[in-house]
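Now for a typical sample entry:
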Amino acid sequence: MGNQFSVRADSEVLLVVEEEPAPPPPPAPAPKKAKATVVTLESLSAEELDELKNEVVSELVTKIAGEDGEKLQDFLEPELITAPYDPRFPNRNQARHCFVRFNEYYKCIYERGEDHARCQFYQKAYQAMCPSEWVESWQELREKGLWTGKY
């Protein structure tokens, strides 16, 4: 841009000069990269291996437990889930309810597959209410082909 002159009515001359902006400084040169060396586990000393193991373990613990250990409580104490009320079984004796949920689980697996959400519900329900000895004996009977149920 050029210079600009303006004249006032009282005959004073005012000189206004607009300067062109300075060009931006050139970018800083990028630091030279050192050649990457390949490190294998066999090339590390015993102390370096121990240090590496400790780093990996501490990173995993931080991921699982969180920075301040806030997730650790959830990890150590899983949520307890019990079977909801079922009007088909109003009595205190829940043996039949347990048996039916066990059968419903295997029926669901047969019809929908193991990963279906409803099947997971039935599994949690029978695991919460059935004694483990019963479940083990029923699973043994299923493996031997002596189970009385259809599924």
